[in-house]
Amino acid sequence: MFTGIIEEIGTVTRVVQGAKSSRVTISAAVIFSDLKLGDSVATNGVCLTVNEMTSSTFTADVMHETLKYTSLKGLVSGTRVNLERAMLANGRFGGHIISGHIDGMGTITDILKDDNAVIYKIAAKPDIVKYIVKKGSIAIDGISLTVTVVDNTSFSVSIIPHTTQVTILADRKLGDMVNLEVDMLAKYIEKLLKQDPKTPQSTPMTAEFLVKNGF
User: Fold this and answer.
1) Could you give all domains of the chain from N- to C-terminal order, each with its CATH number?
2) pTM beyond 0.70, yes or no
3) Order of all β-strands in the sheet with 8-17
């Protein structure tokens, strides 16, 4: 699990393309203080497993499924990426719960300066936007952000100067694709609401059920 608080920006040093997969090597500094083989590193929001490492690089395999549904398929040598190690149980929870499993991609359709902040408008498919709410959380390229505006086809976030400085959002341009992970709580609630009362051991989420359980 991750929090969406980016630890540092890494740089892709090598990409080896397979038939449908790839193998990516990334250089960094901060995350190597306690990184081990088998650890998870969120790379632009995608959970990757370290399978090789040196004192300043780690290598991870990116499977076909990941390349199909994330922007990692566009990585080349020199690309900058957001990095975050898996959260510690005794650490501060600065962002929100992020799994590193991308729900889909969005497209940056507008970038507006707003005094000391920058507003990014992102278009996304309805099956992603339906989980997004105003003032709710969204992970964009692994960054925990708060939604300021949302409609049926897009949403906006307002970025403070610090976030621009310590993440790759400053590199993003109009038309760029970004990885999106919605708040997982919304998906669990949806599944509960859609349970079939005819299914054995299934409890439909109704007003009566909520009252009975103290809500």
Assistant:
1) 8-85 (2.40.30.20), 104-190 (2.40.30.20)
2) yes
3) 46-49, 40-43, 80-85, 8-17, 22-27, 57-62, 52-53
